[in-house]
Every structure is written in C-alpha cells, then in structure tokens.
Amino acid sequence: METYTAMRHFADSWGLLAMTLFFAGVVIFTLRPGSKKAADDAASIPLRED
Known about the structure:
It is built from two helices and no strands. It has helices at residues 2-30, 35-43. The protein starts with a helix and ends in a 7-residue tail after the last helix.
C-alpha cells in the first residue's frame, strides 16, 4: 500500500504540473508565428493528387 500512496502523491503534485506544462507547450507551439503556412500545408495533404 505504501507504493500506491507515494505514486498518488507524485501524480497529484508533479504529474499535474507536467501535464499542464505539456499542454501549454502544445498551445504555444500551435499558435507560434509562422505556423499558419505549415498548418495549411498539412491540411491540404489529403486533397493533393498523386
């Protein structure tokens, strides 16, 4: 039971912080200047002819 309590404490503190930082990084990466061209290019891939 001791390992469960330790893992729960870790997830409640550092795990939440890690997930929040990851989410913020994804949002910043997506909204960075210059990403519109790359997103538009990726969105048009299924419509391209072979």
